[in-house]
Amino acid sequence: MSTDPESVATHQQPPRGPNDAVARFRFGPGLLLFLGGVVLGLLGAFLQAVTVSVGDLALPVGLLVMLAALFASLRMVIHLYGLRRAGVVVLVGWTLATLVLALPGPGGDVAIPGTSEGIGGIYALIYLLGGVVFGTACVNVPAQLRRRERGS
Questions:
Q1: Residue among 137, 113, 132, 133 nearest 123 (CA)
Q2: Residue 108: is its pLDDT beyond 80?
Q3: Position 35 in a domain
């Protein structure tokens, strides 16, 4: 049985594979994702210190919101691109911005205080270390948690 070229549907697209996702992830989107991670790190460096006082207890609302924003942004870009490396690029941008702001500046000021600052310093340490550990865990979760069954 020979295949007649006229009878074969040539307008069908080949099934999309993992190489298509890698082809979509180029320098331009990677740079934008990196800059998005930097912006998230800059915002987080200042907003992680926001607390809400309830009596004598200071709740670290800013810390929780920024860690949730980090999680949401990582999972969003991983889902959009279908690649974990997209999340890695965002996480690297966030980490670099956060670490730079944790270092003393020319005047000796820091945006993220050390542990010598009392409870605020402990929240900052949780933000730094927890963000890196939590972000790394988010990036290591596969892009699609469940395989989609193809119909036959």
A1: 113
A2: no
A3: yes
